[in-house]
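JOB MANIFEST
job_type = single_chain_structure
chain_count = 1
residues = 170
[input]
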Amino acid sequence: MPKEETKKEIIKKEKAVAKEVLKKGSKTFNEFKEFIARGNVIDLAVGVIIGNAFGKIVTSIVNDILMPIIGVLIGGHDFSNLSIEIGDATIKYGTFIQNIIDFLIVAVCIFIMVKVINKLTHRVEHTEEVVEEVVEPPKDEQTVLLEEIRDLLKEQNSPKKTSNKSKTTK
């Protein structure tokens, strides 16, 4: 009998551990769903996709337009075919040169894009500052009431002066 009770206790403990693991797994899965649903992750995914497409365009510009022009300028060489054979190994340094030019073009394009974005954000921030300077902050209730009292007192004092003048003229 004592062995069966021990087995039952072990099974209970194992079930409790299994439930805890499922609970933690469910919590982790929910946290992952929240992480994926955030705008930053989606923005990053869109950026990667657009970057990949942009990379293909840049590669085409380098391979199909720039490299033939550069090859003509330096004597009709085609960089993509430049290589050195050492034994059975082939070192394609022409492809490496093309990749360097590819990288430089991407870097220049990103630099220009960042510069344009910084100018736009600076303009937006500057216009927000100007708008903030022009708009007066709202007055609190006490100030509004004091101004109303001041205006009422001015109104009360100004008719008295006119009435005094009218009395003296009669």
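[summary]
The first strand starts at residue 84 and ends at 86.
The domain at 14-138 is CATH 1.10.1200.120 (Non-ribosomal Peptide Synthetase Peptidyl Carrier Protein; Chain A).
exit_status = 0
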